[in-house]
Amino acid sequence: MIMAAFFILTPLVWSAPKQSAAKNAETQKDIIEKAFNLSLQKDRAQAMNILIAAIKQESARNVDTSELKKALEQISYVFYTERAQQTYELALSLKHTDAPQAQQKISEALRLEPDNRSLFIEMLRLLITKGDCQSAVESATKERMRDSYDENLVLLQAQALACVGNWEGYVKAKEGLEIKKSGLYKFWLILELEHNFALKNSNKAKENLAALLKVDPKYPELHYWRWRAATGKEKELFAQRYLKECTNISSGVYRQYMTDVSLCRKVSEVEATRKNANNPT
Known about the structure:
mainly alpha
């Protein structure tokens, strides 16, 4: 699963799909060749459209579409220009310290490559970060209607729906997705934690916490959710760990977890809760 397409400036390559029937293989081969040729001409939108149409058609016939999906993913995320990619990289470097400036840079890059999925997804993450979650819901939902095969889009739509508290929509958004098999599993676990805390389902939340601790014990947001679940002295311990982790987070660690739109955004909440606990009225 491509989470963001970095440093892809060379021509795209692909391998022909292996099919049991030669006719089907040839058909997919022709479609993929056509899509890559369009992409090389920087006609990303048309390239994506013919691949999406082919995936829908082949899926209806229960034919393997893995190579078509692979081609779609590559074309969706590839950068065509060095300028757009450099502007994107600059936006990521600014994201944690200056989100408005990062958003401006992403907007600049989108003017250069309006159909670039890397840029589109990052713009929606920044919308959620600044609290414009409904706009993110609408944009992600519209894009998923066009392309329902990109799990990054599924996750982003789910994150936006969680942000507005639409848990019914959240459950519907991830229907049919086996999150335990996902390359984005740890990010789904964060959403599952938030969902189960919202529903006051403590047993499920504990299961999510245990799973996240096993999958990635260094995940910064793990301390926040352990703080939410803890009582007594343990609560203060996890609060300290979370505040320390997020206050001193490096750019490398931030980038590693930036798929999580809630990353280190609960610092004010934890600080305020600690203050009230230490100074009860």
